Amino acid sequence: MNKTGVIILAAGNSSRLGRPKQLLPYHGKTLLSHVVTEALTADLQPAVVVTGAYHAEIEDSLRGQPVTLTFNPDWGTGMASGIVAGLAEALSVEPHLKAVIVAVCDQPHISTELFRSLKEKNIASGKGLVACTYAESMGTPVLFEWRYFKELSALSGGAGAKKLLQRYPDDVATVPFPKGHIDIDTEEGFRNLYF
User: Fold this and answer.
1) Pairing state of beta strands 29-30 and 25-26?
2) CA distance to 76, 138, 182, per residue, from 135 (Å)
């Protein structure tokens, strides 16, 4: 089975925004629910949502959706701990995962098509790492093939998984995500989504 799962990181406390950005309204859903829906429509299974600061509220908001929630008690240490927790949960649900896509919950322009293009580029290129490109850099969502799971599981600190892209440049393919640089960190950023 060529199963590709997704880890959606939704553990932060939105300190600059002052309220949980995961639950901001966006096109009749929450920002997090939008990302979840796009991932599920792209047939990414298992879909693991990593929670932290607002665990109870997020769990309530996703009730009835076919996702696996996992609470990361170390969410305050940075993105790496969320990836580690999410990957462990994904592998416990589906031990034979071929790949996993790491996504964040505050990129409003994430789409089913983008998730599918990451999977298609992985197959077409034969590369084990597929990243999105925007604003002259590489970033999330990023696909990691199973051969990188051990290194993903050993991540620590706030840097996330970008160091793997830097460590193995010859095994990286990319897909364009022109609006990938747009994320929601402030009230102004949220207002700019609509105006």
Assistant:
1) antiparallel
2) 27, 8, 10
The CB density around residue 130, as the number of other CB atoms within 10 Å, is 28
- 143 token code pair: 């696909």
Above 80 in pLDDT, residue 139? Answer: yes
Return the amino acid letter for 154.
A
143: CB partners within 8 A, 6+ apart: 4, 99, 100, 101, 118, 119, 121, 122, 129, 130, 131
Q: How is 55-73 classified by DSSP, letter by letter? A: HHHHHHHTTTSS-EEEE-T
Do residues 95 and 88 lie in contact, with contact meaning Cβ atoms separated by under 8 Å?
A: no
Q: Could you tell me which residues are beta bridge partners of residue 29?
A: 26
Q: How confident is the model at residue 192 (pLDDT cuts 50, 70, 90)?
A: low
Q: Residue 183 — pLDDT band, cuts 50, 70, 90? A: confident
- What separation in angstroms does the CA of 62 have from each of 125, 143, 164? 35, 24, 31
Residue 105 has phi, psi (to 5 degrees) of -90, 0
